Amino acid sequence: MLAKLKQFLTSHTEAVTPEEQERQLRLAAVSLLLEVVYADETLSDNEADLLPQLLTSSMQLSIDEANELINEAKLIQGNATSLYEFTQEINQQCSVEQKQKLILAMWQLAYADGQLCQYEDQIVRRTAELLYLKHSELIQMRNLAIETQRSQ
């Protein structure tokens, strides 16, 4: 477990294959999503159902691959000391549009149980800052997530 965390954190300085870079990027994104899920210290059924769905649709993964990625990210996320560990990887490899999609997914998870707790809000906002997104982009993604939640 600690070896995986160390490998994740030092990956940007080592030569890795494109497949490994993709895996590390996915782990970083899922770890950020888990930060939102666990922010209110409860995992609702809606959140538990939505997370794998978001991964299968956005990352073109099978449900088994999504669950495997979630389990691996739980180990990494649980040992992380800051959001920066994950956002650094995303900043290096993702476009603004990809970052916006990640923030949208974070908002969707935050609103999945029908209420937004202050800790979920803080994590999404801090992540958006670390991803160098504009405040207007953050609000646009939040509003889109709220509209999606209402239409379901």
Task: Describe the structure in your own words.
This protein is mainly α. It has helices spanning 2-10, 18-37, 45-58, 63-79, 84-93, 96-111, 118-130, 135-151. α2 (18-37) packs parallel to α6 and α6 runs antiparallel to α7 (118-130).
Task: Produce the secondary structure layout.
Layout: H1 2-10, H2 18-37, H3 45-58, H4 63-79, H5 84-93, H6 96-111, H7 118-130, H8 135-151
Helix pairs in contact: 2-4, 2-5, 2-6, 2-7, 3-4, 3-6, 6-7, 6-8
Brief description of this entry?
The protein has 152 residues and is mostly helical. The chain has helices spanning 2-10, 18-37, 45-58, 63-79, 84-93, 96-111, 118-130, 135-151.
Distance between the termini: 38 Å
Radius of gyration of CA atoms, rounded to a whole number: 15 Å
Portion in helices: over 70%
The DSSP helix count reads 8
Report the major sheet.
none
In terms of structural class, how would the helical and strand content be classed? mainly alpha
Mean pLDDT: 87
The secondary-structure element order is HHHHHHHH
Q: Give the low-pLDDT segments.
A: none
Q: What would the principal axes of the Cα set say about the shape?
A: globular
- Tally of extended strands? 0
